Amino acid sequence: MPISAAVPARVLTVAGSDSGGGAGIQADLKTMLAHGVHGMSVLTAVTAQNSLGVQGAWELSVEAVRAQYRSVVDDIGVQAVKTGMLSSAVLVEAVAELLVGTDAPSVVDPVGVSKHGDPLLAAEALDSVRTKLLPAATVVTPNLDEVAQLTGIHVEDEPGMRRAAAAVLDFGPRWVVVKGGHLPGAPVDLLTDGTEEHWLRAPRHDNRHTHGTGCTLASAIACRLALGQDVPTAVRDAKAYVTGAIAAGFPLGAGIGPVDHGWRTRTG
Asked: How far is 60 from 216, CA to CA, in rounded Å?
């Protein structure tokens, strides 16, 4: 079979490792494969993690993170960058500086805690996220807990999502997706740049195995941007992909299993 010489779109994830394979770098690369792009990675931290929670985390040095990033971007190039777990103020600030110097859209998932409630971002790093990382973002994708961390706004309904989105936009990203999946009723997300509003609704699937949803959504958005879509189309298509992955989520271990990143091609 002849090998195509066409080079696929290239997407870089800057995030932590999930040894259980459901979130973090592992989820990002699976999502990128599912979208037909070439996934690359900058590792920021190593976690000991399974279906029950995070048992340990070890941060890499700024020098190691910067060297990985420059190695990939300067030689291979990127069409989009996604960030996840950055853990400390020094890493947040270093990655923000790298994003500003990269001519590609960036999707920032402001990871604060794991699915099990384990802290993944130092409290003192929040100000760096607000003042350095968010202004560098094309799209930022906070869930309601992360919105509360960043803005102090505790969202209880859709009008609250609108207020929260405005508060996040005040920090400087071009677009924000406030993820409302933890609200009662059908899951709804709000995408806005302060002028346009897109309310994205989907059915709620009765499946507790949802580990990795945030990483997966942000990565899927980055993939769609790298493939040339505009932000509203990219977010809409990414949400459809994640909704299917949640529906197909499967049990692993004794706790919360992952979403199924390969649900579109699963044959058995």
From this structure: 22
